[in-house]
Design a protein that fits this description.
Layout: H1 3-68, H2 70-76, H3 84-101, H4 111-132, H5 139-152, H6 156-170
Helix pairs in contact: 1-6, 2-5, 3-4, 3-5, 4-5, 4-6
InterPro entries: DUF7935 (IPR057695)
Keywords: Membrane, Transmembrane, Transmembrane helix
Transmembrane segments: 6-27
C-alpha cells in the first residue's frame, strides 16, 4: 500500500470513526438518562408508600418522648405504696415498657435519630435513679425531687423531640 492509498483510506475511515464515537457518546448519555429517570420514578413510587409509614413512626416516637418526659411521667404515674424504691422502679418500668412497645419504629428512622431517642430514654432513667439516691424516704418527696431536677435543666425528652422534629422537616426537602 502506498502513502496515497493509506491517506485515502484514512480520509474515508476518519469520518466513520468520528460519527461512530459521537453516536456511542449520545447513546451512552441517553442510556444514563433513562436509568436515572427509572430510578427516580421507582424512588418516587416507593416514597408514596413509605412516607406515611415513616411519618407514623416519627409520630409514635414523638408520643413516646412526650410520655417519658419527667414532668408528665411523674404526674401520670402515681405512687402505689409508701416505698420510694418501688416508685422509682415503677417509673423506670413505665419507660422501659413504653420503649419496648415502640422498638420496631427504629427501622423507619435514621440511626442518629434512634440513638438520640435511646440516649433520651437512658438519661431520663439516670435522672430518676439519681433522684432515688437522695435521702428522701417517701415516693411523694421523690416526685418533688424529680420535678425540681426538671426545672433546673432542659428535659432529655425535649432535646430529642427537637431532633425528631428537625429530621421530619428534612423529609420534605
Amino acid at each position: 500500500m502506498s502513502g496515497d492509498q493509506i491517506l485515502q483510506l484514512f480520509s474515508y475511515l476518519l469520518p466513520a470513526v468520528v460519527t461512530g464515537a459521537v453516536a456511542f457518546y449520545f447513546f451512552r448519555l441517553h442510556t444514563r438518562n433513562e436509568d436515572g429517570r427509572r430510578r427516580f420514578l421507582l424512588h418516587k413510587d416507593s416514597q408514596k408508600e413509605t412516607l406515611p409509614i415513616r411519618l407514623q413512626a416519627y409520630e409514635r416516637m414523638a408520643l413516646f418522648l412526650e410520655r417519658i418526659a419527667l414532668n408528665s411521667l411523674v404526674v401520670r404515674v402515681a405512687p402505689t405504696g409508701k416505698n420510694k424504691s418501688d416508685y422509682e422502679n415503677l417509673l423506670i418500668k413505665q419507660i422501659e415498657t413504653e420503649f419496648e412497645h415502640n422498638l420496631s419504629q427504629q427501622i423507619y428512622m435514621s440511626d442518629s435519630c434512634w440513638n438520640i431517642i435511646k440516649t433520651a430514654k437512658n438519661t431520663t432513667i439516670q435522672i430518676i435513679r439519681s433522684a432515688g439516691m437522695s435521702e428522701t424516704d417517701s415516693p411523694d418527696k421523690l416526685r418533688e425531687d424529680i420535678l425540681n431536677q426538671t426545672m433546673e435543666k432542659e428535659s432529655p425528652s425535649n432535646a430529642a423531640l427537637a431532633f425528631v422534629k428537625k429530621e421530619v422537616s428534612e423529609l420534605w426537602k
